[in-house]
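Handout, section B. The chain below has 406 residues.
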Amino acid sequence: MTDTSLADQLGGVRGKRVLVRSDLNVPLDGPDDDRVITDDGRVRASVPTIRELADAGARVVVLAHLGRPQGKPDQRYSLGPVARRLGELLGRDVAFADDTVGPSAHATVAALADGDIALLENVRFDAGETSKDDAVRGAFADQLAALADGFVSDGFGVVHRKQASVYDVALRLPHAMGQLVSTEIEVLRRLTVDPARPYVVVLGGSKVSDKLGVIDNLLAKADRLLIGGGMVFTFLAAQGHEVGKSLLEADQLETVRGYLARAEESGVEILLPTDIVVDTAFPSLDRVPEPRVVPADEIPADALGLDIGPESAQAFADSIADARTVFWNGPMGVFETPAFAEGTRAVARALTEVDGLSVVGGGDSAAAVRRLGFDEAAFGHISTGGGASLELLEGKELPGIAVLER
């Protein structure tokens, strides 16, 4: 992480228009015309960089996306509620433009004084943002760049995407890495370069296929891999166990068998649950859960696994207890439902007690930490980017970082 201020990196910012690509992709609830943010973690994480620039006299123009609106305006994905919350957190007004590069954006930016802040509407309302065509994406980036004199990349959750407001704008303007992205890169690289040992990786979430690359890479780096969440049932099935109606990726069974064999050969411990909390149906609003605990190798044919069991939760916590480095990505169960949240709670609690570096790898894991009431300060680092953190740990080049380091 550089000690040089953003103002110095950009050659001064007072009176200049600075685009800041933040990650404000937060969950919203409620009717389309009155959406409410249910987890503002990413908004809070964006504040330090925006504040630093505004305090230095920049005219700050924030870019962000929300959801997947398919390249056209969709009120469900408007950043209006985010602008209000950002203003509350900053303690100052945040102007909001109801388009991204149209008349409202130009008028809003033109009206900014030194130290003022504006948020433009969802960049994904324009198909150019995510286009695979370099020319189409570049044309949108040209329009964005015309609004500013400099660019700061601070949306870690999107730096693994080659998108107009992440990659192409940086090619067109003097640029710098924001505080959030700089910190994320510094911390996550500590997980891949000479980590303190024992090094424990906890993986959960829905699918093995989402984490193939990171498992493949970490088998050569970690001392222990703890597997929970929906992905565990493909591991159990690979060992020949019945998994009932649980989530199963049959096309990944051979890959998982290969991982299990490699781990045994290399001395990496893969810890799987010995008991599972099951029900006969996925949680829903119109049904009271009927959880029961069964051995992991005896899941009934009419049941599906929705959490690791209490014996496994304790075993996972014990395995984390002596770690000096822990990376956790993916909940252990359907934590949004209290009946299936205890496995995730046990892992989170164990991370708060680690004598070393504990990293929560963004996405659902970060949401679980907040939803279950943990103090975020009790963790070494909570990443804002699930996909980006995984790709970094896979050893992949992240386009949004590579373009800043040219």
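Note. The longest strand covers residues 17-21. Compare this with the example in section A.
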